[in-house]
Known about the structure:
Oligomer: single chain
Order of helices and strands: HHHH
Number of helices: 4
Strand content: under 5%
Amino acid sequence: MLRYLPFLLVLALWIYAFIDCLNTPEEEVKGLPKVVWVIIILLFGEVLVGPVAWLVAGRNRRGPAGGVGSSEGSRGQRARFVAPDDNPEFLKSLKVEHRADESGKDDGRRDETLLKDWEADLRRREEELKKREDRTRSDEES
Length: 142
């Protein structure tokens, strides 16, 4: 079983690089046209040259999402960490949550009323069922 492991790893890398190349937009491909990269990956996949070349030099790698790195919005400048109390979007989200909590108090009272109504209805139905069972027992005994 272990003798097949290197073959399977090469095959997995080959397939990964091929699919990654196919799914990469043309704008993100570096160096050569996308079609040429696909041919290189397919022709030199068995010796790992094609897939490794693609993974190392074939496409522009993105930085971590939301982390420090360059983006089109910052035009190559480093993203700066903003504390939550200085972030206007975060403060807006708190206001929205606070309003939802305040309106939730009315919802809580309404839910409590609904629960009491359901409990009363359940008790009424249980009493009706108990009366029916008592009637059927008395009818069976007679």
